């Protein structure tokens, strides 16, 4: 094995360890008592306890926040995909001033500071008596998911060969059939990645949820933040258990998407 290849593999292993170490350490701390956590030398050998997880899973505010996060993220990502994917296809195939301005507008939504979105949205939802509600969060997060879906899906559709679509039109396929039967299957891997990225971004979002909720529609990041604001009385074991619960859905989603992408690429390489 060449020294350069060996060095690159070593760097990859080191990078993987740097990424995994905080996750593994948080998982271990979730099963420690405060006595095991509040020591000068971190304990690698300890007697695991379930009380932290039991407290988090049994707390009503956490279960409500978990349901809120799942409902809000699922609807925001689903509606963002339903609106964003067809819009991305139109932008990729119809190159004119209108589509270029639409693409710029979608990108500008993505790069706006969250506070620039939160303040006008808060005024709107207060005026409509929808403040601190799931629909308000879903519609607000749609501004994020639609822009991200368009941003990441346009290059995917641009890589679909136009010759394939023209051949489909020769076979008398209409525009909807060309989109659903030709373009969408070819670009599905990149689109799935865009949807997964949207879900993770919305799931971890904090500032908008903090400014648009007070009690009923609180999400998991808000509840986890409240647990960390107790000063010296912070229940570190419970906080780590809450972080583990917060991290599970994105990790599971990434694992599923990664497995699907690896399977698809391995099939392509074997053909």
TrEMBL record:
Domain of life, per lineage: Bacteria
PROSITE patterns reported for this sequence: ABC_TM1
Membrane-spanning parts: 7-28, 65-92, 104-126, 138-157, 178-203, 236-261
Subcellular location as annotated: Cell membrane
Domain annotation ABC transmembrane type-1: ranges: 66-257
Family the UniProt entry places it in: Belongs to the binding-protein-dependent transport system permease family.
Record-given protein name: Sugar ABC transporter permease
Source organism per UniProt: Pacificitalea manganoxidans
């Amino acid at each position: 094995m060449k020294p350069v290849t060996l060095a690159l593999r070593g760097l990859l292993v080191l990078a993987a360890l740097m990424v995994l170490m905080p996750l593994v350490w948080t998982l271990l701390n979730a099963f420690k008592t405060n006595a095991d956590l509040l020591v000068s030398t971190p304990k690698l050998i300890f007697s695991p306890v379930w009380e932290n997880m039991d407290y988090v899973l049994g707390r009503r505010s956490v279960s409500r926040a978990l349901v809120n996060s799942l409902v809000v993220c699922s609807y925001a990502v689903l509606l963002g995909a339903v609106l964003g994917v067809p819009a991305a296809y139109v932008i990729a195939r119809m190159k004119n001033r209108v589509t270029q301005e639409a693409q710029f507008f979608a990108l500008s939504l993505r790069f706006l500071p969250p506070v620039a979105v939160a303040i006008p949205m808060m005024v709107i939802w207060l005026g409509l008596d929808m403040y601190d509600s799931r629909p308000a969060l879903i519609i607000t997060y749609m501004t994020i998911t639609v822009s991200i879906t368009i941003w990441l899906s346009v290059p995917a559709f641009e890589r679909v060969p136009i010759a394939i679509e023209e051949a489909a039109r020769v076979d008398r396929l209409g525009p909807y059939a060309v989109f659903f039967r030709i373009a969408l299957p070819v670009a599905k891997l990149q689109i799935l990645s865009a949807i997964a990225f949207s879900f993770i971004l919305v799931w971890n979002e904090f500032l908008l949820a903090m400014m648009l909720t007070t009690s009923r529609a609180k999400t998991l990041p808000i509840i986890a933040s409240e647990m960390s604001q107790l000063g010296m009385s912070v229940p570190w074991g419970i906080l780590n258990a809450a972080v583990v619960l917060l991290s599970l859905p994105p990790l599971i989603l990434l694992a599923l998407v990664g497995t699907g992408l690896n399977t698809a690429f391995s099939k392509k390489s074997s053909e």
